[in-house]
Amino acid sequence: PWTEEQGPVPEGGPWGRVRYEAVKKHLGAVGALSRQYWQYLACKVWQEGCEEEEKQQEEREASWGFPLVGQDYLEILSAWYCSFGKCCETGDCRIINNITGLEADLSEQLHGQHLAKEVVVRAVQGFLQSPRPQKALVLSFHGWTGTGKNFVARMVASHLYRDGLRSDCVRVFVSLLHFPHHNYVDSYKAQLQRQISEALQRCRQALLVFDEAEKLHSSLLDAIRPFMAQHDSEGQAHQQRSIFLFLSNLGGNTINEVALDFWRAGRAREEISLELLEQRLRLELQEAAENSYAHSHLLRENLIDFLVPFLPLEYHHVKLCARDAFLARGLPYTEATLDQVAQMMVFVPKEEKLFSAQGCKSVPQRINYFLP
Predict the structure, then answer these.
(1) How confident is the model at residue 76 (pLDDT cuts 50, 70, 90)?
(2) Is 352 helix (H, G, I), strand (E, B) or coil?
(3) Confidence (pTM)
(4) N or C: which end of the chain has fewer CB within 10 A?
C-alpha cells in the first residue's frame, strides 16, 4: 500500500505521517484491534494520543489489564513496523540501549563514584554487544545510603528503555515493600517467579531491580536463581538478555574504611582499584553472620558478575549534588548557598568529619529551606 522508501527520513517527518496513516488504515480494514489496542499501539510506537492512553492505563490498572496474548500481538506489530519504519535499531521500540548517553550522564551527574561509572558502563555495554551471552548479567551494588545506587539503577533503565522505569520491560522489587512478612514467603516466591517469567516473555531484554537486597528471604533468592544461571538451550533464549541489579547496604563500612585509609595516607580516592574493594567486599560478605543475601547461591555459585562498590561522599560531592538539585528545578544558586546546604549534613567519622552520613539522599529536600 505504500511505495518503497527512497532514503532515510526523520521519524517525525511527512513520510512518517504517511506511513502512520497507511498502517492505521490497514489495521482498521482488517479489524484486528479494538479501540483500546489501537490507542495503546499508537502511543507506544508513534507517540500519538498518549495522554488519552495514560488515562486509559490508569483505569486498566484499577480494573483489568491487556491479556498477555494481546501484549504479544502488539509487540509483533511493533516489531513489524520497526522492520520497515526504522523507528528503532533494536527491533523493539521499547528498547533504546543508549550506552553513549548512559556513559555521558553518569560522568556528568554521578559524583565521586569513578569505580561504579566504569564498571556499570563496561559491563552493560559488553553484555549487550555479546551475540549470545550464556547467562544473565548480574550486578550487585554495595555502599552506604545516598551514595548513588538507586540513581544508577534509574539511569540504566532510562538509557536502555524508552520509558525508563515505567517500561513494561522493567520490574523493580523493594524487599520491605513487596515481601514484608516472612509468614507469606511461599506465596511471595510463587508471585515473584511468575512476575519474572512474565517479564521475560513480554520483553526479550528485561531489567529486574531488587532494592534492599540484603533483606530478601533466602527462599526468594533461591526462586530468582534459575533465571540468572547459565543456560545453553534454545528454549531459554528469552533469558539471554536479562539484566539483574541488586542494591544493598552490605559492605558499606568496608568500603568506607578503605576510602578513609587512602585519605589518611594522602592518596586520592581515584587511586582505589576495583580489585582491592571487590576482594575486601567478598571477604566481608563471606563473614556476614545470618544474612541470607551474603550466604545465598548468588555468591557461592558465582552468579554475580560484578560487585560494584559505591564510595562514601565527601563535602565537595554534596555541593555538586546541591547544584544539580537547584538546576533540576530551574532555581538560581550561589557558592555560598551550596556551602550552606552541605553544612546542614552530618559528616563522619567524628574526628575527621570527612564523609556525609546520608550521602546526597536528603539534598533535594534540603534546598527547600533556601527558597524565597
Answers:
(1) low
(2) coil
(3) 0.76
(4) C
Residue-range domain boundaries for the chain: 14-85, 99-309, 315-370
Cell numbers placing 267: 592518596
Residue 369: how many CB atoms within 10 A of its CB? 9
Q: Given 3.50.50.60, 3.40.50.300, 3.40.50.1110, 1.10.10.60, which CATH number is that of 99-309?
A: 3.40.50.300
Contacts 24+ apart (CB under 8 A), 360-366: 360/111, 360/146, 360/147, 360/148, 360/313, 360/317, 360/318, 360/321, 361/145, 361/146, 362/146, 363/318, 363/321, 363/322, 363/325, 364/325, 364/328, 366/322, 366/341
Please give the span between the terminal C-alpha atoms of the chain, in angstroms, as a whole number. Answer: 60
Exposed/middle/buried for residue 355 (C-beta within 10 Å: 0-12, 13-18, 19+): buried
pLDDT-derived band at 364 (thresholds 50, 70, 90) equals very high
Q: Are strands 355-356 and 207-211 parallel, antiparallel or unpaired?
A: unpaired
- Average of pLDDT values for 64-87? 50
Count each helix (H run) and each strand (E run) in the chain, helices first.
16, 7
Q: Quickly tell me which residue has 563471606 as its cell.
A: 286
Angle subtended at Cα 106 by Cα 101 and Cα 107, rounded to the nearest 5 degrees: 100
Asked if residue 87 lies in contact with residue 45, where contact means CB atoms within 8 angstroms, the answer is yes
Angle value at C-alpha 259, between 255 and 262, nearest 5 degrees: 140
